[in-house]
Amino acid sequence: MKIITVAFIATLTVFGGVVSASAQSYYAGAHLGMNYTHDGNVVEAGFPFDGSYDLGYAIGGFVGREFGGNTRVEGEFTYRSNGIDSIGFGGVDIPASGDISSLALMANVYRDFPGATLTPYVGGGLGVAFAWINDFSIAGTPVADDSDTVFAYQLIAGIGYPISPTVTVNLDYRLFGTSDIGIKELPPFTNVPLDFEYLNSSFMVGLRTTF
Question: Is the peptide bond prior to 162 cis by the omega test (within 30 degrees of 0)?
Answer without folding.
Answer: no
